[in-house]
Each structure stands twice: as C-alpha cells, then as structure tokens.
User: Fold this.
Amino acid sequence: MAYEHIIFQVEEGIATVTFNRPKALNALNDDLFREFSSAMDEISANEDIRVVILTGAGDKSFVAGADITELATYDALQAKYFSQKGQRAISKLQDLPIPVIAAVNGFALGGGNEMALACDFIYASENAKFGLPEINLGLIPGFGGTQRLPRQVGKNMAKEMIFTGKMISADQAREIGMVNKVCPPDSLMEETLKTAKDIASKGKVCLREAKQAINSGMEADLLTGCHIECDGFALCMASEDAREGTTAFLEKRKAVFKGNLK
Ligand code: CO8
Assistant:
C-alpha cells in the first residue's frame, strides 16, 4: 500500500514507521489511522521483520495527539467510532508478536502519548515532552490512556497527569518509569537502532514468548502469569534457536540465531 501520512521503511529486518504530518505536529487524523492500521497488518504478515520503531517526522514532535480540527467536528457517536478505530489500531500495535520501540523526538501528547505507551518501551530525546492534555479540551484520553498510563506509572501519578493535563519532561518521564532512556536529539535514532539491532539478533521464538508472557502475565494474577511463562519456556525449548543458544554456550562460542519460527 502507498502511504501518505506515514513513512514505512524496512531495512535489515527493522521496520520504521514515521508519523508524517509535520505541519500539524504529526497529529493523528482518520486517514493516518487507516494507514497506520494497514502498516500494522503489513508488519504482521512479513516474517522478515524482527523489530519495529515508531517515530515522528521533523524534530519537534512525535505525535501531538488526535487531530483537534477533526475532533472538534465530532458528535458523540462519531467520537465513539473514532476512539474505537484508534483503539483497534493501537491494539494491533500492542499485539504485534515482535518488539516495538517508540523513539519519541518531541511532543508525545494525548493520542501520541497513548501510542507510545502501547509500544514495548520508549527512548526519548532530551527535548521530548509527554502529557495527556485532553482535560484542557474538556475531554478525557480516548486511545487507552486512562488504562495504560496507570498500569505503566501507577494510579496516582497517572491521575495527576490526567487531571492537570500538564506536560512532563523526558527526564521526569524516565523517573516515573515511562521512558527507558533519554538521548540527545541527534543520537536518538542511532541509540534506538542500536538497541533494535541487538534485539533483532536474538531468537525469534524466545522474543515472541517473552513479550507474550510479560503482556498476558501482567493482566493476570501471579500464578496464572507464571503458568503462561512455563508454557512459553517449554515452547522456546522446542526451537532451533534454543538448541543453538545452549550448544553455543557449551562449545564456548557466540550463538548465531537463525531467527525463524522453527
Ligand atoms: N491537532 C491538530 N493540529 C495540531 C495539533 C493537534 N493535536 N497540535 C498541533 N497542531 C497544529 C497547530 O494547530 C499548528 O498549526 P498551524 O501552523 O496551521 O496553526 C501547528 O500544529 C503547530 O502547532 P503550534 O503552533 O501550536 O506549535 P507550538 O510549538 O506553539 O505548540 C503544542 C505546540 C504545545 C504541542 C500545541 O500545538 C498544542 O497544545 N497542541 C495540542 C496538543 C493536544 O491538546 N493534544 C491532545 C489532542 S486530543 C487527543 O489526543 C485525544 C485522543 C483520544 C481521542 C478519542 C476519540 C474521540
């Protein structure tokens, strides 16, 4: 599919999806969501892709939220459908069986913050700003922010952010556990790619099972989560890459993972 509002590139097994409406600070409109959803399908169908990076075009913004010019015209039903459409697309992102890193290069507000929260982890540039400012529009987050933010940073911190709508800096976002690493703007993509390449060199089955165990286990009680982990561990053991990993250790050499699903 040809894309207009996102840039979709695949290089050496790493897919980069760039939100590309810099004049509107990459705000999420209906067309962009349609394209983003197709890109997620394309990634799911391509077994050569090992890791995904999400970022924003330009140096000012990752995504400054849902497009307020569109949002302002919605009645309640349209708002519900738009919220559902966004949530479906963001769920597709969260449910990708491969790791996804958000490289946040500026504003990650409202829907943009929610998009980043659905990634496996976030690297941010020093100039990044995070926030859920919907309260200032008389709204609440509608793309999963009231659910993912408290799960990520705790209920009370999430309430303060959502009730005040205030932005926080990249360093503050790291302090509360939203961001893993803060980089100078010029090295954000380099640092993100370095980690993406490292992850891409690991076995595919174990990455898949690790993500599934963490995501499903975090939504279950500890015992159920540990059962999910046992099953994932057993599946990994059946993979060629587990044979290679354990054999390489015993032969005192570096493992070379094939990264297939066998
Ligand atoms: N939507 C549409 N256009 C936007 C948005 C946006 N979210 N954000 C910025 N823009 C546009 C501006 O209108 C401006 O356009 P123009 O040049 O044509 O006037 C351009 O981008 C540049 O923006 P600014 O001039 O405002 O740049 P500043 O550096 O002065 O300010 C800010 C940057 C602080 C990011 C400011 O633009 C801002 O506050 N933006 C809005 C942020 C916001 O409120 N985001 C939340 C949106 S609501 C949301 O995400 C809800 C998600 C759930 C929806 C559920 C479905 C119903």
Observations:
- The radius of gyration is 19 Å.
